[in-house]
Structures are given as C-alpha cells and as structure tokens.
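thread from #wetlab-drylab

HS: before we spend reagent money on co-crystallization trials with flavin-adenine dinucleotide, can we at least see a predicted complex? here's what I'd submit
DV: go for it
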Amino acid sequence: MAQAELNIAIAGAGLMGRLLAWRLSEKSHRITLFESGSLETPGGACHTAAGMISPLSELFHCPLPIYELGMQSLQHWPQWVKQLEHQTGSQVDYRQSGSVLIAHPQDRNELLQFQQELNAKLGRESGGQLQWLDNPALRNLEPELERFDQGLFLASEADIDNRKLLPALLQALKQNHVQLRENTPAECCPGKIESAGGSESFDLVIDTRGLGARSQIQGLRGVRGEVMVVETPEVQLQRPVRLLHPRYQLYAVPRANNRTVIGATEIESDDLSPISLRSTMELSSALYSIHPAFAEARVIETRVNCRPATMDNLPVVESESGLICVNGLFRHGYLLAPALVQKAESEIGKQTQTLATAQVT
Ligand SMILES: Cc1cc2nc3c(=O)[nH]c(=O)nc-3n(C[C@H](O)[C@H](O)[C@H](O)COP(=O)(O)OP(=O)(O)OC[C@H]3O[C@@H](n4cnc5c(N)ncnc54)[C@H](O)[C@@H]3O)c2cc1C
C-alpha cells in the first residue's frame, strides 16, 4: 500500500534535519524545514565535525549499538551519496578506503589493547575487519607514515566531507521544493510548530534541533569538541589516520586542497568559546609527532562546537502521536544518521498506520 502524503515540519536543519528532509521529500511528503540560524553556515555540530564514519574505531569507547547502527549506515551512504551527487551535480567526497590506527613504538600496547577490546566486543565477527599491519604493509598503504613500524587497518571505514555534504543537501532540498524557514527558532509540539510567526499545524512534527531541544529531552547535554584545519602540500595521507596514545587521542582526516582536519577534544562542557591554547598545543604536537613536515603546515581554521549527548551517550528516536524526536547523536552523527533516518521513517509508517486505522473504525 502506498504511504499517504503527509504535511511534515522538521525543526533543526543540521545533519539529521537536512538528511531527513531530503529523504522524506524524495517520497513526496510536503516538508517545511525550520532553522534557528543560517542555512548557508549552519551553527550546529554538523558544520564542525570531521565527518568520519568509523564504527570499528568508535567501538573502542562505545557500546555495541553504536557499531551496529554504524554498520547499517555504511550500507546506505554510498547509494545516498551517489543519488545526491547525481541530483545536484555536486561532489560530496565520500571515501570508503578504511582507516589506519598507529601508535608510537613505546605505546604499542595501545594497539594491542584496541585489538583485544574489539575481539572481546565482536567475538568472531572482528576477525575479518581488523588487519594488523607490519612496516611494509603500513608503508604500502600510507607511505608518509615512515616513523611507524606497526599499525591496524580497518578496511570498511569511510568518511565524508561535511562541508560539501551539507550545501549539497541544501541544494537538493531547494530542488525538491522543501519550504525553508531560516533564522526562525521553533518550538515543537505534537502536530504543531510555534515560532515568531505564530502557531502552524502539520500532520507530523520532527524535532532534530540537537542541543536546541534541551528543554524537551531529559538529560541532554553538550560535550565540547575542538578541531583544527591545517594545510600543507608536504604530507599526503590517503585516508583518516588515528594516533593511539595514552594521553592524547588524535585523528587526522585528509581533505581536498592539501588540507587535513585534526581533532578532536572531548570536554564535558557546553562552552562554545574559541579553542584553548592547551588544545591547540596538544593537537598540533600530536600531529607533528606523526610527521615532522606538519610543523610547517598553515593553520587555516579552528572550529569549536558541542555534541548533543544523552545520559548514556546513545541516540534517541522518541515517538508520540504527531511528534518524533531524533537526538543524542553525540560524536556519531555522520556514523549514525542514515540508520536513524530509517528508524524515523519506520516510526512515521507506524503513525500513519494508526491514523488510517482510526479513520476506518
Ligand atoms: C568537534 C566535533 C567533531 C565531530 N566529528 C564527527 C565525526 O567525525 N563523525 C561523526 O559521525 N560525528 C562527528 N561529530 C558529531 C556530529 O557533528 C553530531 O553528532 C551531529 O552534527 C548531530 O546532528 P544533529 O542534526 O542532531 O544536530 P546539529 O548538527 O547540532 O544540528 C542541530 C540544528 O538545529 C538547529 N536548531 C537549534 N535550536 C533550534 C530551534 N529552536 N529551532 C530551529 N532550529 C534549531 C541548530 O541551529 C542546528 O542547525 C563531531 C562533532 C564535533 C563537535
């Protein structure tokens, strides 16, 4: 049976709001998207993120559901990106060429511990997903990592350039005639949006406001993250590289134009002030320890934002009649978004079914 065409409001045009608006508008629902800030330069965590889609690397600090949802998302991203690039004619730079984990020789235990943790959490499933790299294998994958004699390769992991994805999604929304209301802070109620323009009714409201939904989601908190973007033609990494270190965890994600996004701090605070001197020094020196040529890299940008996190750091998809909330994507927005879009779509299906049954009886 074809799904009824609904009049849906989405509040929050961050990653989750844009992706949902695009998928739902592709299914012929009528969508109005409310954003408190600017659509060109989103103020949410989505604009700050590094864009890694790394279910295995994240499993080291996270519970199994994050990995499982992440693996589901990895099945959708390639097809969705292809469709988005075809529709908009833009290039989004999705890359599925794995991640490399390295540690300095004195920290070799970090690699062993990572491997043990994954084996314990995944059992036999971890076997094919984790490859130990000796020096020639590492040099073959990442010639610039000549200082390191061992590493781990997680072949299934991917990453996406969020600074290309977000504008491409916006363009697709315009093409799909989504009603866009920027600079319009919204309050979400079942079947209703309240904004400065008054109260508007919809068949369904979807709340994807990230930290903007604090008053509605109990225990939602911000976790500060800082990243830097550096530029140098001297070091050419091929894929995201993570340095395992007892004190600093660093990732370096290569982007177009000789740029590398490095991050990220994780600080229990919802402070949005500029990056601290300490974080700048720690990130820079960890990067420099990967390759000395990073010393001459130019700092192009520093970014700070807060990740929307629940008490248990797991995402929530909550549904009541006329209202669905998707939140708590924490440090995993790009990793989890497609799987959460699917969960939201299944909630929409349940709500329309209930509506149809109520109308018949
Ligand atoms: C430093 C850093 C690095 C990260 N790196 C990664 C990574 O490598 N991989 C990964 O998977 N994830 C990463 N993340 C996490 C990812 O960015 C978030 O999980 C994701 O952006 C959450 O998406 P969201 O749409 O729920 O919220 P957001 O992206 O925060 O978007 C919420 C939107 O709602 C809007 N809004 C707020 N209040 C209102 C209101 N009242 N009315 C209307 N609109 C409103 C905001 O302006 C914003 O545009 C990182 C995050 C940070 C901070």
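DV: Residues 1-96+156-220+311-361 form a domain with the FAD/NAD(P)-binding domain fold (CATH 3.50.50.60).
HS: ok that's useful, forwarding to the group
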